[in-house]
Amino acid sequence: MKRIALLGMPNTGKSTFFNRLTGAVARVGNWPGITVELLDARILLGAEMVEVVDLPGIYNLHGYSEDEQVVRHFLEHNPVNLLCVVANAAQLDRQLSLVLQLRELGLPMVLLLNMMDEAKRLGIAVEQEKLEKALGVPVIPLSAKHGQGFPWAKGMLEKSLLGTQAQSADPAKFAHDDELEHELEKLVSETVHTPIQMTPTLTCRIDRTLLHPWLGLPLFLLSMYLLFEAVYTVGTPLQDGVEWLLGLAKQSLIEPALAGTSPALQSFLLEGVYNGVGTVLSFLPIIVLFFLFMGVVEDSGYLSRAAFLMDAFMGRLGLDGRSFVMQLMGFGCNVPALMGTRVMRSRGLRLLTMLIIPFSLCSARLQVFVFLTTAVFSPQTAPFVLFSLYVMSFFAAFLTALLYRRKLPNSEPLLLELPPYRLPTARQMVNRGWHEAKHFVRDAGGFILLGVVAVWFLTHYPFSATPAGADTLAGQIAGWMAPLFAPLGIDNLMSIALLFGFVAKEVVVGALAVIYGTSEGALAGIIATQLTWIEAYSFMLFVLIYTPCLSTIAVMKQESKSWLFTFVAVVWPLTLAWLVSFIFYQVATRLAA
Amino acid sequence: MTLEQLPVGHKARIAALEGDDSLRARMFALGLRTGREVLVIRRARLGGPLQIRIGSTDLMIRRSEARLIRLVDEVATIFPTAASAG
């Protein structure tokens, strides 16, 4: 089968073109020697099936970043018939450098000038035929987002594939570079015409407000808050809907089907396996929505502005502006925020950011805190208690960064593009949501299911004991852990809830209800009589800081590809949670006495 | 002088790029090349990064990296700082 490699700089709309070319049939492929995931798709071009591979966006073929190495490695070890290079027509003055480097490889090539509409708005004119002649490759103007020029581009790919032999690149040709600089200047001055003074664009005017020295940050925080609001306003009913459907299926289909079987098996299937599947599925609406909304923000170019605003502070912690953006995303849900760190090139920076994201007080933890604060504190003090937990969340993250910044040094110079503000199309958003949802179910799903089944087993074995009671395995573990948790003011019953919370914070309140043998409705009253405010706050501190959920651990492993890092990312928050709760409980009880 | 010292709203030509190969390759790819004109649009507070414009591309660059970009001494004012820099 013939193969096309899709290449280009970041922010050129390369992925948009890929999606348009291949539809929604892309899958993640395995390639020799490459650890990052590359999307590829098989499509019918003319009379032949052709494989299209979307390589990571790179600035330079000779660079040292992970992505650049991936592209070099790919071209060396995987024969391709055609290079399809996507360039942003509005920035040809610099993007042609990559084109020239790629041309040196001597592989057949087609150049797509994307974002022609944007270039025209800026008054930039490109002489396509001259450029074609100078480069010696076909050049096609295009707007991948809106589709203009797309049939022409597709036809040209088809034509250029005819009679080609697949060949891999010669590593020796990756080497030379400097002569290109002169050629680039000549090429640009002859074929690209840029107005001398650019008119102030809409982007400049928006920047004046959004990057305002005093208003910039509050405006960004406000928009993130509105984004979370939107996700949960739309997502919570959907989540309830999924749970309702699952409950319905359980009552009307699965329970009758299991009627004749043993109670232990029923319990295993219903409370173990089925609840596990349920946990995964009920996460889904939030994940999909989050990526839909986040996709809008990401594609809009606003995130790089937030990075600009926060970089001074984050830099002192060994992080950079983008880490702050991811941390804020984590206040919605840690899972997509962890995936978002993929944009970072330096491994130290990326891991350090992944280490602080789980301290972000996500919506699942918020449920626990809202429940406990309303149960234990007066309506006047409850909001302050909640606010103090948010402060604690930032404190834990920044402390962690300070402690680990030497271990995970950030070698990445921050040199980022601030792209013009853009609105994504509905098609781009849907593609994105769909892709991330698939990713989540496939990679994190199995892990969550396993975890839920494990907790079910711990709280139900031996089957003769009361579920979650002192005689079960969980009860015994809680007994052993008592010396650890007693100094924190967390009793055996509550520590079983923490065990549940390890799987997902969503189940903590439900678990407390099971443990206290009551309904969720009556639980608040019981908790209020069982716990002092100091015990309740100590419990909340622990819940805030220790492992957010199995999904985050799964994603942590998936993204870091390191068991050691995953281990540290579990053990360190546990240690910190213990220390913070311990100090708080000991000091507070002494002061109160 | 270096890019770090160029005031907001001013433009100057790049004389030389310092720093290691990988950083210079990155700068090159983003359009920061000898002979090109660079305009400083704004500076973030508290020693934060600069927003600069090269051709039609806006970039953010940390001050430490901006220090590695040497400029020729002729400087042109493009827009008055107080009105537009924000």
Q: Could you explain how this protein is built, in words?
A:
The complex is a heterodimer of chains A (593) and B (86). By secondary structure, chain A is α/β, with parallel strands linked by helices. Helices cover 63% and strands 9% of the residues of chain A. The longest helix of chain A has 42 residues. Helices cover 20% and strands 40% of the residues of chain B. Chain B contains three helices and five strands, in the order βαβββαβα. Chain B has a five-stranded antiparallel beta sheet with strand order 4-3-2-1-5. Chain B is an alpha+beta fold. At the A-B interface, helix 3, helix 8, helix 11 and strand 10 of A face helix 1 and strand 4 of B. Strand 10 of chain A pairs antiparallel with strand 4 of chain B, so a sheet runs across the interface.
SSE order and pairing:
The complex is a heterodimer of chains A (593) and B (86).
Chain A: E1 2-8, H1 14-22, E2 27-31, E3 34-45, E4 48-54, H2 66-77, E5 82-88, H3 92-103, E6 109-114, H4 116-121, E7 125-126, H5 128-135, E8 139-141, H6 150-161, H7 179-191, E9 192-193, H8 202-210, H9 216-257, H10 263-300, H11 302-316, H12 321-330, H13 334-340, H14 347-356, H15 363-376, H16 382-404, E10 415-417, H17 426-443, H18 445-460, H19 473-485, H20 492-503, H21 508-515, H22 520-530, H23 533-545, H24 550-560, H25 563-592
Parallel strand pairs in A: 1-4, 1-5, 5-6, 6-8
Antiparallel strand pairs in A: 2-3, 3-4, 7-9
Helix pairs in contact in A: 3-7, 9-10, 10-17, 10-18, 11-12, 12-13, 12-14, 13-24, 14-16, 15-16, 15-22, 15-23, 16-23, 19-20, 20-21, 23-25, 24-25
Chain B: E1 10-17, H1 21-29, E2 37-43, E3 50-54, E4 57-61, H2 63-66, E5 69-77, H3 81-84
Q: Which whole number gives the mean pLDDT of chain A? A: 84
Q: Termini distance of chain A?
A: 78 Å
Mean pLDDT of chain B: 85
Low-confidence stretches of chain A: none
Number of strands of chain B: 5
Query: Class by helix and strand content of chain A?
Result: alpha/beta
Radius of gyration of chain A: 27 Å
Strand arrangement within the widest β-sheet of chain A reads 2-3-4-1-5-6-8
The major beta sheet of chain A can be summarized as:
7 strands, mixed
The rounded distance between the terminal residues' Cα atoms of chain B is 24 Å
The proportion of residues in beta strands of chain B is 35-45%
Rg of chain B is 12 Å
* Fraction of residues in β-strands of chain A: 5-15%
Number of strands of chain A: 10
Question: In order across it, which strands form the biggest sheet of chain B?
Answer: 4-3-2-1-5
